TrEMBL record:
The UniProt record lists the keyword Protein transport: no
CDD domains: YafJ
Annotated SUPFAM superfamilies: N-terminal nucleophile aminohydrolases (Ntn hydrolases)
The entry's keywords: Glutamine amidotransferase, Hydrolase
NCBIfam families, alphabetized: ergothioneine biosynthesis protein EgtC
Enzyme type, top EC level: hydrolase
Protein's UniProt name: Gamma-glutamyl-hercynylcysteine sulfoxide hydrolase
Its biological purpose: Catalyzes the hydrolysis of the gamma-glutamyl amide bond of hercynyl-gamma-L-glutamyl-L-cysteine sulfoxide to produce hercynylcysteine sulfoxide, a step in the biosynthesis pathway of ergothioneine.
Keyword Hydrolase: yes
Biased amino acid composition, Pro residues: 260-273
Coiled-coil boundaries: none
PANTHER family reported for this sequence: GAMMA-GLUTAMYL-HERCYNYLCYSTEINE SULFOXIDE HYDROLASE (PTHR43187:SF2), GLUTAMINE AMIDOTRANSFERASE DUG3-RELATED (PTHR43187)
Region feature Disordered, mapped onto this chain: 245-273
Lineage of the species this protein comes from: Bacteria, Bacillati, Actinomycetota, Actinomycetes, Kitasatosporales
Amino acid sequence: MCRHVAYVGPEEPLGELLVRPPHGLYRQSWAPRRQRYGTVNADGFGVGWYAQGDPVPARYRRAGPVWADLSFADLARVVRTRALLAAVRDATLSGADAEAAAAPFAAGTWLFSHNGAVPGWPGSLAPLVPSLSAEDVLSLEARNDSAFVWALVLARLRAGDDEGRALAETVLEVAAAAPGSRLNLLLTNGDTVIATAWGDTLWYLTRAGGGTVVASEPYDDDPHWREVPDRTLLAANRTDVLLTPLKEPGDAPTSAGAPAPAPAPAPVREPLT
């Protein structure tokens, strides 16, 4: 369900990351190569990006397929950015909330996307509603599982958790409440990308010219793409990628309650060749 991509690095036109690559997100809307669930991502799309000197991202979202939006190619050709998060959507429940249900979701400096599905939604996550304030629940942007997962993440961020902990603990909480959930999450603040691989594909590329791409699947055949193991938290900036295993629900928690078993691996640095 869905494909998404995030980037931080040197300033680029949106189209160089989304449209021009032979298997970029634009093409993945109708011909993904590694999508395990669903075949066509035509239930909406969105891109969020950061303009020079402005920490608050802009968004462009639509309810229909990206290939049907005649303005998107022009927008992607001329708008440049140092960071973006974009997604094409294959809805779990079609027709729900139209454009409002399309990622990326946003708050302050953050952009967020969810690739996956929560089985039994909405009943399976009803026990987690008390962890949110009444205002949070009433402010949900859409009535879907992704918007609710974003509300859980955002509540943790606003409570002071760093991005990695907020994503990891949300994934573990949702997976415990709804076993079998697929929870590949992407979060950026314009300087870093945090992601989880949980039930679906996730790849990253440290580009030779600078910058890091994190995506549901490679947008080209560059041999430097690396697949992220399932049940992993990824943290990336423009040059480095750190991968940390996530504990399964039911495993003994660490003393701090964080989902990081065993020694944390060293940052993975791709050769700049």
